[in-house]
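Lab meeting, item 3. Inverse folding demo.
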C-alpha cells in the first residue's frame, strides 16, 4: 500500500530531465547493475524507445509528481517489463502499484523481467505482482566491470 496516489501516463518531454537524474543515482545504478547514461546517450536512447511502436513507456506519478518510469519492450521474441523509481520513493509500494497498473493494461502473456541477484526490492515487487522465478542468466557486467548474475522472472 502506498502513502499516496500512484498513476501512469505517457512520458512527456518535460519528464526526461527528472528521469535522467534518477538513472544517475549511484545506489540505483548499483541495485540495477545497469550503468547510468550520459545526457546525450540518455536522450538518444529515449528517442529510440519512443520511435518503436512496440514499446510501452510510461511515467510513474505519485500524487501528480514524476517519481519514475515503467516500460515494456520486446527482446529476443519475449515481451519484457522494467521500471525505475527514484530512490527517495523506494519502499513505499510505488513500483508494485505501477506494475499492477501496467499489467492491467498489458494483457499479453507471458511477460518476462530480469533483476540483479542482489536487488531484493525489485524481486519482491515482481513476486507481489504474480511473477515467478524461472531461471537465471549468465550475468551482465555492472559499472565496475564485475559479472552480476540476473534472476529471470515470468508472468503467465
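The presenter then showed the designed sequence:
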Amino acid at each position: 500500500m502506498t502513502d499516496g496516489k500512484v498513476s501512469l501516463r505517457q512520458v512527456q518531454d518535460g519528464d526526461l530531465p527528472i528521469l535522467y537524474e534518477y538513472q544517475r543515482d549511484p545506489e540505483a545504478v548499483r541495485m540495477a547493475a545497469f550503468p547510468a547514461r550520459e545526457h546525450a546517450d540518455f536522450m538518444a536512447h529515449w528517442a529510440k524507445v519512443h520511435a518503436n511502436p512496440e514499446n510501452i513507456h510510461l511515467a510513474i506519478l505519485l500524487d501528480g509528481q514524476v517519481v519514475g518510469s515503467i516500460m515494456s519492450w520486446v527482446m529476443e521474441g519475449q515481451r519484457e517489463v522494467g521500471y525505475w523509481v527514484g530512490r527517495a520513493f523506494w519502499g513505499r509500494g510505488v513500483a508494485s502499484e505501477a506494475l499492477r497498473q501496467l499489467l492491467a493494461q498489458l494483457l499479453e502473456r507471458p511477460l518476462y523481467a530480469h533483476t540483479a541477484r542482489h536487488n531484493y526490492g525489485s524481486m519482491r515487487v515482481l513476486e507481489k505482482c504474480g511473477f515467478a522465478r524461472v531461471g537465471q542468466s549468465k550475468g551482465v557486467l555492472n559499472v565496475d566491470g564485475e559479472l552480476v548474475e540476473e534472476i529471470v522472472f515470468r508472468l503467465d
